[in-house]
Each structure stands twice: as structure tokens, then as C-alpha cells.
Write a structure and sequence with these properties.
The chain is α+β, with helices and mostly antiparallel strands. It is built from two helices and six strands.
């Protein structure tokens, strides 16, 4: 499977109440995928009213990207088996830039300053 950064996938997330299939955005690179059997994703939530932190991003082009309702990217990163991922769409350029802005705020060394 060839996943690309910015792909929107559905994937099984383990949680307190069992496994839940939910959308996520691929943030790992092609280089990572060549050497690892897993994928790094950030959660996508449809609870947009709760996505209000500086590390959340409201997706503007959610419908064109394969999502069924208004959604937000949350910088809650998880590494899961790549075989569990099913591609449903891809981020628009402006949404991908919004996701990258979130990641710059949460990953040490990814951004020169901390807010």
C-alpha cells in the first residue's frame, strides 16, 4: 500500500471502549513507509465545536476530501499498522497547510519558536 502525507484514511483506533474505525490524516512520509510496517496518523473528529485549541484545525474542504460531515484535524498522533488503513480521500492544499501548521506547534524541533 502506498500512502502519502495528507491522505485521509479510515483506520481502527484502540480505545477505552474497544476498537473504533474512524477517519485520520496520514502525517508520516514515504521514506518512513519504506522502512516501517506502520503509519503515523492524526485523528479527525466531527465534534468541531470541541476542536478549539491551537493544535486543532477545522478542515475547510472536508466534503471534497471524502468526509461525510464538517470535521477537524486534531494533533493527537498515533502509530498503527498500515494494513488497517483505507484511503477515502486526500487533503486539499490549504487543509494540508493547516495540518502542517498544527504539527509545527506540537512537535519539538519542527518549529523554531514555541507559542
Amino acid at each position: 500500500m502506498h500512502l502519502q502525507p495528507g491522505d485521509i484514511v479510515t483506520i481502527d483506533f484502540p480505545g477505552v471502549k474497544g476498537i473504533k474505525r474512524r477517519p485520520a490524516i496520514v502525517v508520516s512520509t514515504a521514506l518512513y513507509h519504506r522502512h516501517r510496517p506502520d503509519v503515523i496518523v492524526g485523528i479527525v473528529t466531527s465534534q468541531v465545536e470541541q476542536a478549539t485549541t491551537p493544535t486543532d484545525y477545522l478542515l475547510k474542504d472536508w466534503a471534497e476530501e471524502g468526509l461525510h460531515r464538517p470535521s477537524a484535524f486534531r494533533a493527537f498522533l498515533v502509530t498503527l499498522p498500515i494494513t488497517e488503513a483505507t484511503v477515502i480521500g486526500h487533503c486539499s492544499e490549504r487543509d494540508w497547510q493547516g495540518v502542517l501548521d498544527c504539527l509545527r506547534k506540537v512537535i519539538a524541533g519542527f518549529s523554531p519558536t514555541e507559542e
